[in-house]
Amino acid sequence: MMDNDWASVDRYLVDALIGDDGAPALAANADAGLPAIDVSPPQGKFLHLLARSAGARRVLEIGTLGGYSTEWLARAVGDEGTVVTLEFEPRHAKVARENLDRAGVGARVDIRVGAALDTLPEVAEDAAAPFDLVFIDADKVNNANYVQWALRLTRPGSVIIVDNVVRGGAVADEHSEDPNVRASRELVELLAAEPSLDATVLQTVGAKGWDGFAYAVVNGPTS
C-alpha cells in the first residue's frame, strides 16, 4: 500500500468511528496558519481512549500546538481532571486556548507558555500530585530530556507516550545525520536502559504517513 491508500483508510475510519469530533479545532488551526502537524483524528481518539483506559485524571502534555490533542486528552480526564500543557509559541497557545474554550473543556486545561525545559521545573514545583499520563509531541531533539522530566513527575503505573519516533523508518539508520533521527535513537536507547520504564515502539501508517510512537509504563521508583 502507498501513502494515498493509508490516507483513504484513515478517511474511512474517521467517517465510521470519529465523525466531527475535534474537527472545529483542526479547521481553526488551519485558518490561523498553524503548521499541519497535529496528530491525526484516529491518533487523537486513540490518545483519548488510552487516557480513559489508564483512568488518568492528571495529564501532562509537552507540545500543545493548537490544542487538538489537548482537547482529546481533556475530554478523557473528565470534569474533575486536569491537563497541563506546555507550548513554546504564544500565538499557538492563544489559538489553543480559543479552541479549548469553544469545545467546553477550557476549564480543565492549564496552558503554560515558554520553552518546555524552562517551564517543566515550574510544573514540578506546582504539582500537587504525580501525573497519570504524559504525552510528548514537541521538538524532537529534546525527547530524551522530556522523558527524564516525565519520570520525575509520574508514579509507578503512569504512562508516557512519545510521538513521531519512527521518522519514516529512518530510526533504524544508525548512520543518519538527521538530528531528529539521532534524537529518536537516543530516546530508544534511553527507554531500553532505564530500569524504571517498560517500553515499546509501535509503527503507524495513515494520513500522516509512516511514523510511530513510544509507549512506556513507569514500573518502579522514579528518580
Q: Could you characterize what this model shows?
A:
The protein is of the alpha/beta class and 223 residues long. It has one domain (3-218): Rossmann fold (3-Layer(aba) Sandwich). The chain is built from eight helices and seven strands. A seven-stranded mixed beta sheet has the order 3-2-1-4-5-7-6, with helices on both faces. α4 links the parallel β1 and β2. α2 (23-31) runs antiparallel to α5, α3 (41-53) runs parallel beside α4 (68-77) and α6 (116-126) packs parallel to α7 (143-152). The chain starts with a helix and ends in a 5-residue tail after the last strand. The model has no long low-confidence stretch (mean pLDDT 96).
The percent of residues in helical segments reads 40-55%
Oligomer: single chain
Tell me the count of domains: 1
Query: Can you identify the CATH superfamily?
Result: Vaccinia Virus protein VP39
Low-confidence stretches: none
Quick overview of this protein structure:
This protein has helices spanning 3-18, 23-31, 41-53, 68-77, 90-102, 116-126, 143-152, 179-193; strands at 58-62, 82-87, 109-113, 131-136, 154-162, 197-206, 209-218.
